[in-house]
Amino acid sequence: MSSLSTFEINEPLDMHLHLRDDDMLKLVGPLTSNTFTGALIMPNLVPPITTKEALLSYKDRIKEACKDDIFDAHVTIFFQADYSYEFLKDIKEDIIGIKLYPAGITTNSETGVSSMDVEVLRPTLESMSKLGIPLCIHGETNGFVMDREKEFMPIYESIAKAFPDLKIIMEHITTKDAVELLEKYENLHATVTLQHLLITLDDVAGGMLQPHLFCKPIAKRPEDRSALLAAALKAHPKLMFGSDSAPHPKHKKESCGCAAGVFTSPIALQVLVELFEKHNCLNKLNDFVSLNAQRIYGLTPKKKTISLEKSDFVVPSSYKFKDEIVVPMYADEILAWSIKKN
Ligand code: NCD
Ligand code: ZN
Prior knowledge:
Layout: E1 6-10, E2 13-17, H1 22-33, E3 38-41, H2 52-65, E4 72-78, H3 85-91, E5 97-100, H4 118-131, E6 135-137, H5 148-162, E7 168-170, H6 176-181, E8 188-192, H7 195-198, H8 201-206, H9 222-233, E9 239-241, H10 250-253, H11 268-278, H12 285-297, E10 305-309, E11 313-314, E12 319-321, E13 324-326, E14 334-335, E15 338-339
Parallel strand pairs: 2-3, 3-4, 4-5, 5-6, 6-7, 7-8, 8-9
Antiparallel strand pairs: 1-10, 10-15, 11-14, 12-13
The site of zinc ion has 5 residues, from loops.
């Protein structure tokens, strides 16, 4: 069988990304913007983004951090159950969607919603539905950690049923149940991360504990990973790539009380090419990493072609800027594909 030595990806989009702020933003921003043409940026800063003023100034800081690259930051705001219709109408053109977090379920989500009851969420959801603003959801209950996403399925269903015109994105799905739910409601879509296509709980905690693979939702069972991978490899039309690259300072990962989040920005495209090649599905990669998101969100991304070549990429042990140090997934390992320098 012939084996490829180069591969091109057009207009790669990362539809779930944490860019943080300040020096961390300056460090990690370019590690996405030099390869992706756009990304959906999460609003879980401290404090979270809930006002137009905070949103616009964050957009400016992202632009400044990524200024050398062709890159669009599609920002989101942090869901509040009592956003007024007027506020949402006014902010609509500046955002790509609104991210809903159950309170305390993940990093910086303490001010999330304390009830997932549709009636409690109705005021904001009704306005979003009327205005055509997509809803991105971190779908986990506070039940047993391996069951949190599965237990959230009825909540996704209740929102999907109550608001048939609302575009809902199940963020970073990790289970077979979530893949199956995509088929049931027209208005449900999903993102999946890099790590959840590759690892299971065994990789996180089956041997020595691997803090750099610890994230929320936690990686699940082999059959879950298989279902996610099968959906990604066929570029399921309702599934988008969203890395959920979530950098934390090295000392917060390698510590007693490890922060949740896997940092994948600098390796994402290289690993995706390797994975899709391994399964003979490279012809589906551009749909998974760009075209599905363009269709689902109605985006017209800036033109940007990333060329990869089959040559070793030694993943740096860390990335540094001033006092910030972050460790990427696969640190010090050798990947088969690297990004071609122009
Ligand atoms: C994310 C973070 O660090 O902001 N962490 C994670 O484990 N994925 C938040 C999130 O997306 O849950
Ligand atoms: Zn996230």
